[in-house]
Amino acid sequence: MARITLQNLAHSYLRSPRDPADWALKEMTHTWTDGEAYALLGASGCGKSTLLNIISGLLQPSQGRIFFDDRDVTDAPTAERNIAQVFQFPVVYDTMTVHDNLAFPLKNRGRSAAQIAARVQKVAQMIGLEDMLQRKARGLGADMKQKISLGRGMVREDVNALLFDEPLTVIDPHMKWELRTQLKGLHREFGHTMIYVTHDQTEALTFADKVVVMHDGRVVQIGTPQDLFERPAHTFVGYFIGSPGMNLMPARIEGDRAIVDGVALPLGARYGAVSGRVEIGIRPEFATLTDADGLPVRIRRIEDVGRHRILRAECFGREINIIQREGESIPAEGPRVAFDPAHVNVYADDWRVEGEAA
């Protein structure tokens, strides 16, 4: 296992990049803790796979350095980085049995037959393949083959890191849930440093200790699922995480109040001068309908999703979403929406502004 440090790292697929848009990865410096599970989360094209391939050695960065602990591996080939990588589509040896597929990395490193047997049995049991060890991989479905790929990635105990590039894409929905649970269990059991690329927020939030949210080639926030939900560092994080995502409204900030279209709303912190394009962000979970103070809203649609309802509304011509729990009612006339001050975030030019205790 290794601590992974990215130092002034950036990459462009162009020979002579000139503009910010020419860089697939904008310059970044980050350190990822030894033994933690990270998810690289973002929309297609944001740079997730580029960053993963640089860490694995499949791609040479245009600038910057990569360290595993204190060792500079920037110029080291993949084979010398002592990593295991699982790709989006399963890579297995069809002519081998499931057992021999799992054992292959250990045999290559000269492990004893007893060590191989014990390790293969343990990993196979954890991913539900113990009854299939003597079957040939040929003829197995994509689900089972990807399980083999995952198991082969996990079978070595001495790797610096385990890298997963959208490994559950070909898996059916029920098995996705099962494999996410098993991967989490394997991480708790073995303590490998894991980096998991996905565009699926459910996968990221249920798998990772820390989620690395990427947008337009940048890492815009690294944090726990709770951090991303309660304190999105960037408006993209607020929009991308959550269903529905965070509501954003243009505002003017005056101390411990936000002024939205002339209506004053209390904030849970006090702010100095906030300049630029200023917005407040509030999760639908922290917005409440009222017939008293708040912003006037017009309910356009109600979606009942079981334990709660999603109210699709309009406020001063802008769309706003409100999550209403069981037993809560909609005012018959003149509904308004109020926000929990403790959960209102302030943004300037898309980045969160930290306030002081009110």
Summarize, please.
The chain is α+β, with helices and mostly antiparallel strands. The protein is built from eight helices and 23 strands.
Distance between the termini: 44 Å
Instruction: Enumerate the strands of the largest sheet in spatial order, edge to edge or round the barrel.
Output: 6-7-8-3-9-10
Specify the biggest β-sheet: 6 strands, mixed
Say how many strands there are: 23
* The CATH fourth-level homologous superfamily of the largest domain: P-loop containing nucleotide triphosphate hydrolases
What is the oligomeric state here?
A: single chain
Strand-pairing-aware structural class = alpha+beta
Using the coordinates shown, work out and report the CATH topology of the largest domain.
Answer: Rossmann fold
CATH class of the largest domain: Alpha Beta
Cα gyration radius (Å): 24 Å
Average pLDDT confidence is 90
Low-confidence stretches: none
What's the shape?
Answer: globular
Structurally, the number of domains stands at: 2
Number of alpha- plus pi-helical segments: 8
The portion of residues assigned to helices is 10-25%
Report strand %.
25-35%
CATH architecture of the largest domain: 3-Layer(aba) Sandwich
Protein name: Carbohydrate ABC transporter ATP-binding protein, CUT1 family
Organism: Phaeovulum vinaykumarii
InterPro entries: AAA+_ATPase, ABC_transporter-like_ATP-bd, ABC_transpr_FbpC, ABC_transpr_MalK/UgpC-like, Mo/tungstate-bd_C_term_dom, NA-bd_OB-fold, OB_MalK-like, P-loop_NTPase
Keywords: ATP-binding, Cell membrane, Membrane, Nucleotide-binding, Transport
